[in-house]
Automatic annotation (TrEMBL):
It comes from Kryptolebias marmoratus. It is found in: Cytoplasm, Cytoskeleton, Cilium axoneme; Cytoplasm, Cytoskeleton, Cilium basal body; Cytoplasmic vesicle; Golgi apparatus, trans-Golgi network. This is WD repeat-containing protein 11. GO terms for cellular component: axoneme; cytoplasmic vesicle; Golgi apparatus; nucleus. Residues 979-1165 form the WDR11 TPR domain. One of its GO terms (biological process) is cilium assembly. Keywords: Cell projection, Cytoplasm, Cytoplasmic vesicle, Cytoskeleton, Golgi apparatus, Nucleus, Phosphoprotein, Repeat, WD repeat.
Amino acid sequence: MIPYTVNIKLAARTLTGTLNLQNKTAVDWGWQGLIAQGCHSSILIIDPKTAQTIQVLERHKTNVVKVKWSRENYYHNLSSPYCLRLASGDASGKIIVWDVVSGTAHCEIQEHSKPIQDLEWLWNQDASRDLLLAVHPPNYIVLWNGDTGAKLWKKSYAENILSFSFDPFDPSNLALLTSEGIVFITDFSHSKPPGSTGKKVYIASPHASPAHTKPAPAAAPAPTGAKKALNKVKVLITNEKPTAEAVTLNDCLQLSYLPSKRNHMLLLYPREILILDLELSQTVGVVAIERSGVPFIQVIPCAQRDALYCLHENGCITLRVCRATSAPEEAADPEQNVQELVYDLRSQCDAIRVTKTVRPYRMLICPVNENKAALMVSDGRVMLWELKAHTGRAAANPSSGLLPLYSPVAFCGAPLGPNQKRIPDLCLNSMIGQTLIAGEPLPLASNQQEVQLKFLLTGLLSGLPLPPFAIRMCPPLTTKNINHYQPLLAIGTSNGSVLVYNLTSGLLHKELSVHSCEVRGIEWVSLTSFLSFATSSPNNMGMVRNELQHVDLPTGRCFAFRGERGNDEPPIEMIKVSHLKQYLVVVFRDKPLELWDIRTGTLLREMAKNFPTVTALEWSPSHNLKSLKKKQMAAREAMARQTVSDAEQSSVESSVISLLQDAESKSETSQSISAREHFVFTDTDGQVYHITVEGNTVKDGARIPPDGSMGSIACIAWKGDTLVLGDVDGNLNFWDLKARLSRGIPTHRGWVKKIRFAPGKGNQKLLVMYTDGAEVWDTKEVQMVSSTRFGRNVNYRILDIDWCTSDKVVLASDDGCIRVLEMAMKSASYRMDEQDLTDPVWCPYLLLPRAALTLKAFLLLQPWSGTFTMDITQVDYTEKVEIKGLIQEQLNSLSNDLKSVLQDPELSLLQRCLLVSRLFGDESDLTFWTVASHYLQSFAQARQLSVSAAEGSEESQPSPQNHLDICQDVLCESSYFQKFQLDRVHLQEVKRSSYEHTKKCADQLLLLGQTDRAVQLLLETSADNPSYYCDSLKACLVTTITSSGPSQSTIKLVATNMIANGKLAEGVQLLCLIDKAADACRYLQTYGEWNRAAWLAKVRLNPAESSDVLKRWAEHLCSPQVNHKSKAILVLLSLGCFYKVGEMLHSMRYFDRAALFIEACLKYGVMEANDSSNKLIEAAFVDYARLLRSLGLREGAALWASRAGSAGEQLMEELFRGEGGVPEALLGEDEVELGQESTE
């Protein structure tokens, strides 16, 4: 058996319960892999993988209304380490930025005193990661520096701002959802407030649009209800304020940009989700709920696939995936083929039982993998769902008309090796393949498998039920019980159940349904059993049903301690168990007390009718057990002597022996002897009575007359020679029984509700509870140690108190929380690394900055000297033992699947980099390696193809499913990007509903080179439209353009004049007509329209010209005033400028990324080690070796230094100075390896 170790020192912690309505929006799932959740004024940090609360942050005075993790979109090194930073805003307008590991506040920010409406960290520029944008009601947005708390700028708007959403593709675009509509800001920047008031658009409620009432044609088959309602929704967004009756303004619940494709936004209404194309301000897709369906509360769009997670009012989470758009030719029936984005329901989880107090609040999706969801319920539960992909066909259901989903045949961005291990449910895009777009052939790869998606409940955290609570800590730790002690806290609740929590881990140990009504009090009778009592509500005679139950924890057995008694009697006021756990006193309101023997469960005495009414009672800690035991030992010895020699005995001894023999035969020697114990109680006049109990005899002792200074006594506590009385007027009276002194102290705090002495020998601290708070007193010095008071230093009322160790108290409060606090009773967050968690948590952010980087390098640089290992001690790593141990704990907490994949020799370097960046939740790494891995492979493939083509074999087309996801936007291949844009314009064209829309469509078609279709649209202009003439001429121009010299030069001249006179868009269009798109891009760039230029280059130019335009863009991004080098690197990757990328990474001091990237380039043969590139390669490798040395990984440093030429040799000498030169093996192997690579 494992030796049970006892953690004597309990960490301060908070057990939380139900949420407040204001906490509804205060949840966030960060890239760091943890969930933050506001619960009243505290913030829980939850680890979703093991379903544990690992930290509770307390500093806010009012309810927390928003929490946001900082983004991890930056390169991590020692100066900008992996750290847990969280911003939280409360109902009084205060924002706190936390360092979560230590539980301390970085800075506090206060602007107004109204609840914060929205918070977001800026993630888009390389300069600073500390900027925090907040909405302060009613109408201000303020940009703060979250590190120092300084205000950078503030801007007010005309309407009340409800929330905002950043455009994930262009950080200068911001949309505000206001009480009247949407405000689009296009000039957001961190350096100055937006200049304009933004473009305001109003949302007409979808139900008000007249299109709904149009009768369906009789001949057509009736579409389903949702289809019917929404086929025809045309106008939704207007620039004028809609008429009063047509609008219900604020029923729009949410607005979000789609991170999966550019310029799309979703609006959520209770019964539908609208997908808007912002270029047209037009609805292009609708997800609607049938009339009998359950309304939406929230929707989260995914980035990796065009999919939506929706939360419904019954707590059900559904996943809807965008259907592939079919090419127009395929549709036989034009009526059925209404072109719009359709999101098919692919999976849903079970609903919860919704009641008045239990309803779903919010759902969260893991931002790294997008395949895990968490549901926050108002009663404090957190349900953790995971999306799983099952291969296999669905039951044939032709009526649903859903195309099957296929799983991609790749792992971590590269095709699967034949016997390679993989994790099928790693993330959303490794579970389902890309959505096809029109004009793309269906992938008929034989190894593609159909998948079904299912939700699986993988974790559940439950909170405490609603207050009131009755709490009692189990008996204290002593030298005798130290081997099996568990610090258990019993909590009686209002519904009659008793929860037992283990305070070492803070987890629920048992939940027992004991009573049928509210639990009033609990007393432990051993380390594993307790008595609890509950009273039902009184009838008209004032009589109740009393329940007194004895519960045994290990077995869960529970029985009525008073047998049949308990119906129709006055309510029990209190129960008190004697110190030796022999006797129990039960005190009633208007009935004399009862005295029970706990060991036998018998009633010893029911007091006479004339017995005084008890107001307070306490057992004395003194008893005669020791003297009895001595006597018993003496008697035992005597018995032993008697059996040996029948010598004469003294009469006293023989009488004791006979007594003992009688007693032992009676109790079968199992029962211990009955010791004498005393208790004191006070009556209504304040007179103190003293009663002695021994065996089954009860004796009345001395009476002490009342103290004139005291009112009616409410409670008594007794320890050692100190007796303390508390009264209803707030006076405490300290009696020193040895010196026979008494001392009264008025606290002026009102009714003394409870007093309890702290456990531990000689520990004379006393905890006192009042109606408005609590105090700790030292009875030796008779002075107050600490105090807490409602409204002064805490914002909760205290319902019950107890000591849980000799220096920590536990308080139950009316905000539904139970707090374990230091004696000073200051609510403090704890350090996460000091805790005892039952399950180890994978979170590198909990390590010291250096250790986290070491862990990352350890995983990236496998194998170590030829062996794949998950044991850091097998590596030459110089570091303190504790830190090594912490790193090893992190490695041990990885799942077996992950360990086996990480130790799989088939896992390529690129796949490893991608997997590790996913594990670390490192956003910047993940984006870089996704793009790098894709283009390294595609350029390497192209290179092989060109080689094989030169040798005469015919060129095979690269497979179509190998393109980057469209969420990478302009980084995608031009051919795919073009198809996507054509598809989109086709959709816009079907959906257009006004002249404005038609004009925009025609413009787009001209830029895309679709002249015939554009002419058709231009000729649709009606004759009474002011631009009828202009459009007709334009149509003529487009159809008659020839490539003759003079017409071209004229058009070019006109275009340049137009551009010079501020008509940039029109000029660009003309240039595109005469195939001068390269010039058009140049003009766009000159006028600062960089994104537009990149778009045009992707859709119109040949690779060489397009590459020039994008290179200019990359240079612009690198310029100091833009400082967006990370974006520039991605653009260069998509152009295959790998050498330049390597140089940039190295010059930006991204040493590990640079070295690993160059290594991958050499492996894939897209960079060659020759005289020109060797300088860069050696510099990168030697700097990486230095970085590894600074982390303490000498073996890794030696490996990279040995490949870095002359500079590396010098480093090798430094490394091995003390150890007699360089190991031969290292050098030999590596030279060979490098040689092979360069000849590839």
